[in-house]
Amino acid sequence: MSGLPRISEAEWLVMEAIWAADRPLLAAEVVEQLEEATKWSHRTVRTLLNRLVKKKVLTYRADGNRYLYSAKRPRQDYVQEESSSFLDRVFAGDADSLLMHFVERSSLSKRKLKELRKLLDEED
Question: Do residues 68 and 26 lie in contact, with contact meaning Cβ atoms separated by under 8 Å?
């Protein structure tokens, strides 16, 4: 999986909008998706879309005088890459330490703890 282009936090937000749509989006549609949360201008979103195209994270096709943008890879590929990168950077690749850290510092519901126990039992 390694080798995916790194994307910034702002670029990640653009990608989330595109992945969530599960279909090609116009720049205006991406702006609309992000408008309330980010207050970004159309120009800012276009800049981010262009960066993602240059990084080969997005692809586009012309639709008249507009462009439809699509993700080149599914969200899960980037989640996997970011998770591995985080694990390596912050926990020196030690998944046990990562898991212990989050269990100790998170307020997990009883249901989530039960699911986690079940998952860990299945791994034994």
Answer: yes
Report the run of H or E that residue 46 belongs to, with start and end.
helix 42-54
Q: Which amino acid is at 32?
A: E
Q: Say if strands 25-26 and 66-71 run parallel, antiparallel, or are unpaired.
A: antiparallel
Q: pLDDT tens-digit profile of 24-55?
A: 999 999 999 999 999 999 999 999 999 999 99
Task: Please tell me the pTM assigned to this model.
Answer: 0.80
**Integer Cα distance of 114 and 108 in angstroms:** 10
Is 98 strand, coil or helix?
A: helix
Q: Are strands 25-26 and 58-63 parallel, antiparallel or unpaired?
A: unpaired
End-to-end CA distance of the chain: 26
